[in-house]
Amino acid sequence: MIKSALCAVSWALLGLSAACSGEALDYGAELTAEEVLNHWLALPDPPPLPARPSWVLDLALRGGAGYKENVLYSALNQLDSAFSVIELDAFLYRESASPNQVHLYAFADQRHYVELDRGDNEQMVLAEASWTHRFDDSTSANLRGTYTFFDQFFDASISESESEAYRLFQHEFGFRTHVERKLLPRIHGRLGVAGKNVDVRDGDDDYTQVSAWAALEYRDAPHWRAGIRFRHDYDAYDERLKRAATGERWEDETVAVTTDELTLHVRRDWDPARRWQTHLRLTGRLRKDDGGGYYDYENWRGRLLLRGPLVGCRWEAGLYYGNTDYDVRPSSFGDVTSPHLSRTHWRARFRLERDLGPHA
User: Fold this and answer.
1) pTM above 0.85, yes or no
2) Run of H or E residues at 345
């Protein structure tokens, strides 16, 4: 209080001195009253505040466990198993007031199923570089490049006599871009295109995919967010093989597959800090090939997530559902009436997350 009064007096004395001497005092508009007082009292200037870092790194380590039906996605040899999972998130972004924003993101996880061999763990790695330009308060554009690696197990058996479980190694290189615009005060629209090249280890099923999508989203901050999205994919294969449980392979006439997907999502934030959340997502997918219909199917998926804080960590509980119905799934023996044309699985998961970065 005393120092504030002295600051006011110092400004008054400066004005009086200038008036008496007839000289203008060039202290500059950026000079504060406290700095003027320090100058009159011969006090040193306070040390400058530390500069905010232009790049910020956030790290998160997660561990969890759950139970999944039909681990190998098999139509004949269903295997259910408990599993454990470890995940790592790394997010590097630049704090800037400019209309251009850049971020780098990496994600990796390793999952072990109790019913599989100890060494048969599944892995996934995702890396992304993104650039966003904001034209004004209602319009923005985004461009990003991605890399994804999958190491996963599948059972491709189409006969009950033998099981053909194999390991999939897959590399994906892709890009995507979209434009987003606020159409109404609470309605946002988005249009986008994407492309990717998928390389499989044995090279039989490599393909190139081109996609386009459109989305509408309702945002009622700070509580509700809901939207709908339609997406169309076109996959072009260089070569494709069918596989039988006996190990036999033969060339497939299918060289192109189209997929239409419709997604509905709802998010509810239960407190202003967004610590308690509920997420619901429902997806329907229809796939058609240009061959004999071997890859035609309908797929339905659902996901319900609950999130909240717990003793310095965050927890997440999730329930997942998936069902795939194939039109036909013939074998090398000409069995076009196989009863195993539907694959269904449920999965439950619980995980804890702890931030390791500077904002933890």
Assistant:
1) no
2) strand 342-355
